Amino acid sequence: MKDETKSADEIFKEFKEHSITEFFRRNSQMLGYAGKVRSLTTIVHEYVTNSLDAAEEAGILPEIEVKVKELGENRYSVYVKDNGPGIPSKVVGKALASVLTGTKFHRYMQQRGQQGIGAGGCTIFALITTGKGIHVKSGTGKEAYECDLSIDIKGNKPLINNLTTIANTFRGLVVEGEFGDVKYEKSEHGVYEYVRRTALTNPHTTIKLVEPDGNEAVFPRSAQTLPKKPKEINPHPLGISTSDLLDFARASQSRKVTSFLVESFARVSQDKVKELASLVKDVDFEKDPKELTWSDSEKIVNGFKQVKWIAPDLDSLSTVGEKQIEVAMQNILDPKFISVVERKPKVFKGGIPFVVEVGIAYGGKAGRANGETVAGSILRFANKVPLLFDTGSCAITEAVNGIEWRRYSIARFEEEPVSVLVNVSSVYIPYSGVGKQAIAQEDEIIEEIKLAVMETGRKLQRYLSGERQRNVQESGYKTIMRYVSQLSADLEEITGKKKEETEKELRSLIERKYKNLFNEAQNES
Amino acid sequence: MKDETKSADEIFKEFKEHSITEFFRRNSQMLGYAGKVRSLTTIVHEYVTNSLDAAEEAGILPEIEVKVKELGENRYSVYVKDNGPGIPSKVVGKALASVLTGTKFHRYMQQRGQQGIGAGGCTIFALITTGKGIHVKSGTGKEAYECDLSIDIKGNKPLINNLTTIANTFRGLVVEGEFGDVKYEKSEHGVYEYVRRTALTNPHTTIKLVEPDGNEAVFPRSAQTLPKKPKEINPHPLGISTSDLLDFARASQSRKVTSFLVESFARVSQDKVKELASLVKDVDFEKDPKELTWSDSEKIVNGFKQVKWIAPDLDSLSTVGEKQIEVAMQNILDPKFISVVERKPKVFKGGIPFVVEVGIAYGGKAGRANGETVAGSILRFANKVPLLFDTGSCAITEAVNGIEWRRYSIARFEEEPVSVLVNVSSVYIPYSGVGKQAIAQEDEIIEEIKLAVMETGRKLQRYLSGERQRNVQESGYKTIMRYVSQLSADLEEITGKKKEETEKELRSLIERKYKNLFNEAQNES
Question: A95, A101 in Cβ contact below 8 A?
């Protein structure tokens, strides 16, 4: 054993630091690069979400073209072109070839991207699977250029090569790269399904996919106007944490706590601050916010919880919209029943507003094929972005599976032709992983999704029980009709009245009584 | 619309960079801090795994004490003490109060930690929930000291305060911190269950848990020797990627590709290199490895796949061991049937060896309570560390649910008293997230787990079908016995022979015939 032992100095002599790029290079599965099919979808996902964000922020109706070409075994090229604002050459490197850099990280504004990792991650993945960086073409109106981008992994620094200006007529962004260890597959985790679902919740977008086999799938926009632009907002006082408050205080320019609170948070008026001050003893609201201590901050945060606040401003959130979800589900699923609900915005920790939209469809093409049978399916979206992976660890899955479906006339969710679409919109989605494929299971969010699903569920329940009753009546009707002829014959013996006449009278009698039902039955068939 | 539009320059003027600490501070759920119960378990998990790794590397039988105290609503203190080598004061800051720093990131050696994020993450979480850093006490034999640790979030730099030397008699490490937004709960996701499962797969460890209610749970070591120390190894050529090979080449001191290959990879001999060279045309094996191009590297990697290699050295892997798993499951589940299998080491991408161990238990306390009924349960471990979260996205779950249980006489896994324990050991576990609660769904790993489970499943099947047959015989036996008395009476009338005698004879006859069965039946009851 002696020689086996090691001192702390020996153990820690190898102590090293690593760059975030090295980390993700070694753990690319954490960015969503696990499995060949998923990896390809992740690449398309990162570029398409960036294109949508940029176009919308620039006020342009997005037009996106995605081309996937097979180059060899598990080797494909991905080409994504948009009509957005482009990227200035001075930041293109940091934007597409480094991580933890970007415009979105610090903003309280609803966008699809929020971490500044996605695009850089694609470049890292290209490098480790093909040794090649990516090629970019950009036109901002002011300038137009092409270049090759790579990354200095150790330093998380972008490398720009062959930067050449091009005709200033080009407007938008083209990103093109070669990737190994990927595979194109038309499965529910594949690129096609990702694009299809993106079109479903982004009706203002025209998106075209050219598949490796040359097939062109075009999803034209069904809405001709941009969704209302989400406002950049201040955080709502409800649920904000002590440490958040101190951060804002340190960053604040205000000279007094009072003005700091009014200026930094949503729904905080002078009156509200007065009310707050009366509740929060022994904190000096006249002092410099920078002098707030942790315990001051703690007291104020507790005070927040006792004041009655107006719900956060819905303008900070951009939803798909009830009408649009209904149309989209109708087109795709052609179900017998649809119910859609958009809830009021709620707040979760950090004072961050979020909204849940739910659409439920039953019958028709609803549900998903499960061998011979059909099973209930959950369509998950966050800020209108489809979530195709990590189903098990997602708040949406947790919420939908937590529903007592029996209450809504669904014996087993796993065995009925039902589709539940859930879209969570927020200025900050708490993703469970860097790959952004699942929403962390925050109680407040799960609860809100459940309430929304239950709301649609009640409507579904009414529809289904109606259905059942009708089926009962209908089969009753058919049974009677089956005996009419025999009955009439028997009556002839008893009453001497001609069978044909009796039968005719009986039929008309029954049809009068069951008229509506009969018509419905007709329409059905 | 005009005023709505924005130019690229306007959009990108807010372009910012962020430190990795800022990122995890804002996305702490990615480190496992989502939900109050889970957050508390994550803290204990990070400190306990560090303690185990350090003690084992130092060659010390681990003794760990965990104390959790309730300080207020959702506010607890966590205290973890070990008898390990301690941490030198010159690196303690980086070790416990920064991320992406550590001794483990670059090593091909099986350890529980591998990212250099866990402990720093705890300090970040303490800061954002209580504003306080952590307190550390360390004795390495050379020095002993106490200090307070915090982090400069913007710079990912550790802050050390009140560093004071203490009596050099203390040996080991004590980490103590206060955390908010956490909750102690005795659920299957709680600290108690985490410690219990840690004891299950770490028989050489004595671990004591003092719960908030003062209750002391001690799990004494059942093995008096350390597990064989895993060797630090070179990567195995099978499955290594082109970019990995180039990395090693650039770092290599060798002057020729030939010697580089022999020195950098496991199982590569001069002869193997010759064989390889004969397969890989137009790559100069005599040149400086630093001159290898991507396409050279690609050719060599493809060559690797055509050569027959010896499996990687099991010495690089430290398993729990079949015997130990059986004992542990016996103690905890007291089942009617157990089967355990340890597979041969396999390799997955990156030339990284891994081993799967599976134990299956049926009956007794096996399975998990599911309302009134019992359901099949999966006990997941990676490098002997229990995985309690993100069940849905884990390769182990995927593999076990992918088994056709009917084949093994399990009608529905969800409805039988069966427990499946799976431990995956590797120098590098591809975790799906930074929180390290699920193994990424790599095909090679899922496949290997399936094979292991099926191996135990076949034994279970034999047991269960035997059981069924016996039940049939047994009930047959009981039925006959039920009629013996009446039959004897009837026979008396026919044969005149006394009922008592006949009955005696019949009974002994039957008992002879059903002897074994009868005994078993006795033992059962």
Answer: yes
